[in-house]
Each structure stands twice: as structure tokens, then as C-alpha cells.
Amino acid sequence: MSGSLKIKTIVRLRPSIKTEQPDNGIVIDSPTSLSVVNPRNPVESFRFKYQSVYGPGASQEDIWDKDVQELLDHVWEGLTVTVFAYGVTSSGKTHTIQGTKADPGIIPRVVDFLFQNCTTKDRITMSYMEIYRDEVYDLLNGGASSPKLPVREDRDGKVVVQNLTEMHLSCVDDFNAIFSTAAKCRSVGATNLNHASSRSHAILCLNIARAMGETTLIGSINLVDLAGSENNKLTGNDPARMLESSAINKSLAVLGQVVFALNQGASRIPYRDSKLTRILQDALGGGSVGLLICNLAPGSKFRTDTLNTLNFASRTREIENKLTVNEKDNRPQPKAHFAAVQPSKPTAAPRASVAVSGPTTSTGLAVPSGSSSRPSLAPPRPSSSTSTTSRTTSRSSILPRSGRNSALDDAEVRAREREEIERRVRAEAEKDRQRLEAQFAEKERELAERERLRQKEIAMEKEREAAKEREKRLEAELEAQRDLNRQREQEMEEERARIRQKETEEILTRAREDMEARISRAVEEEVKRRMDDLQAQREAEAAAVAAASAAVTPSDSSFGSSSAHDMDSEVKKRLDALEAQYALQRADAKELDNMSSKARRDMAGAFLNVARQYHDKQDWQTALVFYRRCQSFVPDNAKLRARIQEVEIAIEKEKQGVTFSPVKQSGKGSKRQPSPALVPGFGKEAQNMDLDDPAGNDFEFDFQQLRQTRQGKATKNQKKRSRGEAAPAPPTIEEESSDIEVDVILKEDDGDEDGAKPVKKKKRTIGSWLKGKAKAKYDLGSGDENEPPVMSDEDEDGKARSGKSKGRKGKKVKA
Ligand SMILES: Nc1ncnc2c1ncn2[C@@H]1O[C@H](COP(=O)(O)OP(=O)(O)OP(=O)(O)O)[C@@H](O)[C@H]1O
Predict the structure, then answer these.
(1) Could you tell me if the CB of 241 is within 6 A of ligand 1?
(2) In whole angstroms, what separates CA 451 from the centre of its chain?
(3) Mean pLDDT, consecutive 10-residue segments, the chain of 815 residues?
(4) What spans are recorded as compositionally biased (Basic and acidic residues) (predicted)?
(5) Fewer C-beta within 10 Å: the chain N or C terminus?
(6) Taking the domains of the chain in order of start, what are their residue ranges?
(7) Nearest by Cα to 292 from 33, 95, 1, 50
(8) Distance from Cα 94 to the centre of ligand 1, integer Å
């Protein structure tokens, strides 16, 4: 088989081991892709795609069956197959490549496979080496305790590990015995991350030579268990481990550079910068079939290494190898003849192959096809020697001396030329390397700058988010404060309303008490005065009787003198009464000066009430006193004047022994018409409400409806206040009654004696009524002689309205 083939790249994520926390940072999306969370920005993740992706549940067998076994077919075609495991320390490279007895990895499966499929003609050999601190040691010869082996390029440009032991295998057991001993020689040490951490890169090489008539196909399998990249902060390495670690990391860095340079198509690939890349030259951009297994470890502490490993894998899968069949010509070589000796052409050899040569064995990890320099599996036979060295020896032995000298000169010249070319190539390569490194550094700087800006942007975004959050919190706090203020204001408003209400009630109570006190004072004084008068009168009468019985005088003169005496005492009494009344009126007049018109009306009403009570009892004297006192507050009221005159007449008549029928208190008929002020539930508020029709019409007014509305509202407000809620100020009676309808009885004067007669009813609201109101009908100071003054909740008969109102519930009253 020939042609080119890209390196096959697969990924394997190992399960979490006992001491590790489960990790969701790596997600296997499909059998060929996975996503890894960005360690710098956890909301972001990177997605990768490879030929195969194995999760923690995948077995050794799965990997073998799907991705490894098929490659071994190429071995029988004389190709070199290189499988290498790459990954951070403890990611499972050794587990995958080597495995354990219970869970065998790739190596034992390959050996089984080879022996199952080989024929008796096939010859299988093995070599096993380790690269420890950038030196090569033979693991079949004691590993790092044996001498280090030089890595050279032979004349054909092949990389060879000199003196590496190659052992023949006849069966699987042979291999197991040799390998288990050799594996123990491998440099392994304990770190914090892996108790059996590989401190070296191990390369097991299995060669299969199959004779095919005149040629022998030499297939090879290189199984490479790389040491893992290490973060010394995590591994907790001691100084010795640090040196190992630095060598491991350096060789892996060069491996990365080689892959990078191959991807870039660079003219110089830095294989020579480490022993590892030098030896793997054939697998990387050389002539072999390549399989890269990237091992991943779960856990956030490995996240950056995981991403590095996956980036490395992505770059490696782009590398294309030009496959080269390793073939050996079995035909006997023609006898050495100087004409046949040609300098070997470096271009004829494969670009990169690893060959090992030593004193006892001469075999290669990869062998150039058809080349006479191909190492043989059997000990070298003189007749078919393929080594350049033996060719050179036979050539020199047949040359004459002078010819030998000139041949030596030629060789020297060629050697010098070669050195010169090598020097130039190296200088050029060095320049390329420096240029690439500069580019690399520049790229890294660019990436670092981009990363810095991204981090800055993230930090600013976070800051913006935090500021928004703060603003929201402040706004909420402000709103809460505003609510609190509103609530407090409402409470204060309610408190003020309560205080106002209380003050009003107190003022009213005080006024009422004051008035009651004055009335009772006045009554007491009057009663006392009258008692005194009565006493004086009785004493005077007793004295007069005594004097009359003692004196002996003619009957007419005695009659004349008795009559004069009576006249005197009567005049005197009247004078006393007038004086007393005058004194009272003076006292009232004094008070009157300081009173408001409303207070005057109140006082007049109070006295009128008392006067009426005496009037009803036909105690004309006392009634007269109170009517007069009432008059001192409303001196211009004509009706009151007339009432006083009536009472005075009654007194006169009484004195004359004439029976006197009680004076009617209503000037208009048997039934006094209630005024709005007398409607229960309204008290004196309605006094100022003028319900007089400007047109002089009468009307009916449903006070009961108004009262109920008002009481309903008052109860509602009271309840509100008891709950501590704000209640509106009580509306005025005008406001409340404005929508209430009344029936207006229009009157028409038909010219006869009866005067105006009610003819029809018309509905009007109190509001509209009030708009057109004329003078105040019930104003005590109005001087209206046709209407009685209205002072309190009692009607003119002195009966409480509340009692009457019960009987009138729901009935329309005539105003
Ligand atoms: N697929 C797996 N299933 C179960 N256990 C595993 C698996 N892969 C690795 N391990 C365990 O993880 C631990 C580390 O594995 P291993 O030694 O193979 O890592 P490594 O990559 O070779 O590390 P180092 O580079 O340090 O040599 C071992 O205990 C191994 O048994």
C-alpha cells in the first residue's frame, strides 16, 4: 500500500477515581464529539469533533475493536503503524496502552493478534526503550540503569538508536515474560496525582518480517506511552521529580511545535529539538500509519490541560503521512565492484524512519523500502550484507593504494562539502526556527491580549449587572419608604380628623352645658325671687289683717283706707316686679352685648322653652318672666310681644277671678307645621336651611329619607373610625339633601276669601330649591311676624320631636 493518510485521532475520557469529585465540565455529545466548559467563563463551552470519542463507560475492548485492530492489517502490508497515547498526567495513558492483567490494554491485544495471525514464515521481534530526561535507555537491558543510547542518523538519513536490543519472540508467553521484566525497569514515580506516574516516554516496537519470495515485507508497530504533561503545583513534585517533569514538559512542548510546524507547512520541522520527536519523526509527517489517542482526566483542575490536549489533537489530525512500504530484497547482491558503488542517495530513502543498529542486532522501528540498507531480522550474512559499512569496507579493499589515497581525498572533500551543506542547512533551519518562534510568540501575545480584553469585558459586564441590581434594590427600598410615608400621612390625617371631631364635640358639649347651667341658674333665681315675693306678700297681708283688726274706724273710711292700702301694695308689687324684671333684663342686656346673633337665638329659645312649660301649666306669672327674658334676646319679635301681652291679660283676668282659657301657642291653626330644624336627626343644623319657596308655594319634604341616608353614612363613618381608617368629614345638610326630591304644592289665588289654594304638585330637588331661595324663613332676627322662632329640637308645644318622629316614620310631613 502506498499513498498518504492523515493521522487518526481519537479521545478517551477516563472515569472519576475514588478521590475525585464527579465533574460535569466535559460532556460527550456524540460518539464523535464532546464539549468542554471554558474554565475562564463557565457559561461558555468549546466543542470538538474527532473520529471517535469515548466516555468514562467505554471499555478497553471497545477501543480495540473500533479503532486499533483495523490498523494492524497495514502491518502485513509492510507498513509501520504508530499508536501513541497523549494526555495530562493520570489521564489514563498507561491504562489504555498497557492496561492491567484484569483489564488488558492495547499492547497485550496487539501481541495476541499478531501471534494469532502470523504464519510460520513470519518472524516477530521486539525492542523496548524509554526516553527519560531526554536520554534513551534500553528497557530490555535494565532501563535507566543501563548506558544511555545514542540517537543517530545513518547515511541514508534514517534515525537509528544505536545498540538497542532486539529480541525474537516465538509465542505470546515469550513476550509476556520479556515485557513484564522490562516494564519493571521503566522509570515510574509517585506524585500527588498518580501513585504510579510514568516519568519517561516508553516506546515498544514490534517488527514482523514476512518473506514473500524475493522480498521480505517488514511491518512494524510502535506503541508509545508518553509521559503526561504536569502542573508542578498539582503534582507536588520534589526537586528530582521537578527535573523529570521539566524534561517531560519540554519534550512535549517540542512535540507540539513539530505538529504546529507540520500544520503550517514550515520548511523546517524541529524534530531534532528533542529525542522524542526525533524518534517519532516517522510517525509525524513520515511514512507510517498514525493513531493518536488523547486521554482526558475529568475534574476542573485538569480543565486547562484538557483543552490543551484537545487543541493538540485537533492540530495532529491534520498531519498527513506519506505511507512507505518497508521491503527487503532477498536476492543475493552482485559482487562488489567499484563501478557499482554509488554514493547512496538521501532522497531515495523515506523521509523519516527510525532504525536501530547495534553490535549484536540490527533492526529498525521503520525500515525504508527496497533499500539495501534495510536491517535484516537475521544476523548479517556476508553474502547479503546490506550495511553501508560493509559496502564501504569491501570497496576500500579492492582499490590500489594511490587510488585509495585519491578515494580518501574524494571522501574528505565530500565530507567537507557535506559538512558545509549541513552547516548551511542548519543555519537556515535555525533562522526558520527563530522566525517561527517569533511568529509563535507574537500569536501567543495576541491571544493573551485578546484574552485580557475578553476578561475585562466580562468584568465590566459583571459590574454593569451588579450596578443594575443595586439600582433595582434602591428603587424597591425607595418605593417601600414612599409606601410607609403614605401610610403615615394617612394615619396622621385620620388622627387630625379624630382630634377635630373630638374638639367639635367638646365645644358643643361645653356650649350645651353652659347653656343648661345658665338656664337652671336663671330658673333658680327666679323661683327664689318669687318665693321671696310671696313671703313678703304674705307678711304684708298678715300685717294688714292685724292692723285692720286693731283699728276702730268707720266702715267707709276703713274701706277707703283698706282699698288704698291694697292699691299701694299692688302698685308696690308691680314696681318690685318691674324692678326685678328690669334688673334681669339689664343683666341679660349686658350679656347680650357679648353674644353672637346665633347665641342670642339659642338663649331666646332656651327661655322660650321654659316659658312655654309654665304657660302650659297656666302659671302665667312665671311664664311671663321667661317670655320677657326671651324678649331681651329678641326684642323685635312681634309675635313674642303679642304672646307677652296675652299672658299679661291672662294675669289680669286671673286677678279679677275670671276663668281664662289657655292661649293657643300656634298662631296658624291646631297643628304647628314642622320646620326642617325640628326633624329628628338634624338638630340645629337645619336652622339655617331655608326651605321657603320664593314663589310662596308650599311643599312636602321626605325628611325621613334624608334622616335615614344621613344616619346610614354616619354609622358607616363611625365604623371606619373605630377600625382606625380615615373617614370623610360629615357633609353639610345642604350637600346631603340636595338630591332629595320634594313635592311642591303650587298655590293659586282664585280671588275668593280663602286666599291661595293648593292646586298641583310638582317634583323638585332640595338642591334646586335652595338655589332659588329667598330670605331666611326661620331666622329669629328676621322680624317675620307670621312665623314662630325656632330654637331647639322641640316644637312649640314643648314636646320632644324625637318622640313624635317615631310615630311619623316614613310619613311625609308638611313644612
Ligand atoms: N478507563 C479507565 N478506567 C478505569 N480506571 C482508569 C482508566 N483510565 C485510567 N484509570 C486509572 O487512573 C489512574 C491513572 O491512570 P494512568 O496511570 O494510566 O495515567 P497516565 O496518564 O499514564 O499517568 P502518568 O502520565 O502520570 O503516567 C490509574 O489508577 C488507572 O487505573
Answers:
(1) no
(2) 28
(3) 83 89 88 91 90 95 95 90 92 94 95 92 92 91 88 80 92 93 80 72 94 87 88 62 78 88 86 91 86 93 89 89 83 53 36 36 34 32 32 32 54 80 82 81 85 91 93 93 93 91 84 78 80 83 77 46 56 66 65 74 83 84 85 83 86 76 45 38 41 49 60 76 73 62 58 55 64 38 33 34 32 30
(4) 411-420
(5) N
(6) 3-329, 551-663, 676-814
(7) 50
(8) 6
Give dist(CA 641, CA 630) in Å, integer: 10
Q: How far apart are the CA of 297 and the centre of ligand 1, in A? A: 9
Cell numbers 441590581: residue:
469
Instruction: Give the DSSP letter of residue 68.
Output: I
Contacts of 559 (CB under 8 A, 6+ apart): none
Angle at 711 (CA atoms; ends 710, 713), nearest 5 degrees: 65
Pairing assessment for the beta strands 289-296 and 80-87 based on DSSP bridges: parallel
Residue among 10, 59, 94 whose CB has most ligand 1 atoms within 8 A, to mutate:
94
Annotated binding site for ATP: 87-94
3-329: which CATH architecture? 3-Layer(aba) Sandwich (3.40)
Helix (H, G, I), strand (E, B) or coil at 385: coil
Residue with C-alpha cell 512507505? 324
Write 175-179 long-range contacts (CB < 8 A, 24+): 175/111, 175/126, 176/108, 176/111, 178/126, 178/128, 178/140, 179/107, 179/126, 179/128, 179/204
Burial status of residue 66 (CB atoms within 10 A of its CB: 0-12, 13-18, 19 or more): middle
Cα–Cα distance for residue pair 561/559, rounded to 1 Å: 5
Q: What are the cell numbers at 304? A: 486547562
Distance CA 533, CA 576 (A): 9
Which three cell numbers mark 648? 299679661
Cell of 232: 508542578
Kindly give the residue spans of alpha helices, DSSP state H, lying in 132-280.
172-184, 232-235, 239-264, 275-279
Question: Which one, of 778, 776, 798, 774, lies nearest residue 788 by Cα?
Answer: 778
pTM of this structure = 0.47
Measured in whole angstroms, the distance separating CA 231 from the mean position of its chain's CA atoms is 38
